[in-house]
Design a protein that fits this description.
125 residues; alpha+beta; 5-stranded mixed β-sheet; 2 helices; 5 strands; globular
């Protein structure tokens, strides 16, 4: 997201079997205006019914710390993400796939009907 002269928010993600959100950043003076939520909703709308993964570890952005770890995990949890830690990534969270009828306005925040992963599904391994 940009103003006329500067970038004020961004989201970096990689699409594949699981869409992975690498980082969301908002310039400090533009925080608490819903920009990160709007960016995340756009990604969830793109993913539609597929799983979305991320690492919910604080990452300094614009040389200033964003949300602390517990606050960040709680923010992602409000958007349908569950902790799924692994040895390589103790901060990993996954928003499971949702049924198409449950997706509303591009976001399944707290209202999704989750699709159970199949045995042997590598997306959550």
């Amino acid at each position: 997201m940009h103003t006329r002269t500067e970038r004020v928010a961004y989201l970096d993600a990689v699409d594949g079997d699981v869409l992975w959100v690498n980082h969301i950043g908002v310039e400090p003076r533009f925080r608490r205006h819903g920009l990160a939520t709007r960016l995340l909703h756009a990604v969830l709308a793109h993913a539609r019914c597929g799983p979305v993964g991320l690492t919910a570890a604080p990452f300094p952005s614009w040389r200033e710390q964003g949300l602390l770890h517990e606050d960040l995990r709680a923010w992602y949890a409000r958007h349908g993400f569950d902790p799924v830690p692994s040895r390589q990534d103790p901060y990993r969270m996954i928003r499971p796939a949702v049924r198409p009828a449950a997706v509303r306005h591009g976001c399944s925040c707290s209202e999704e009907e989750r699709v159970e992963s199949r045995a042997g599904d590598q997306a959550f391994a």
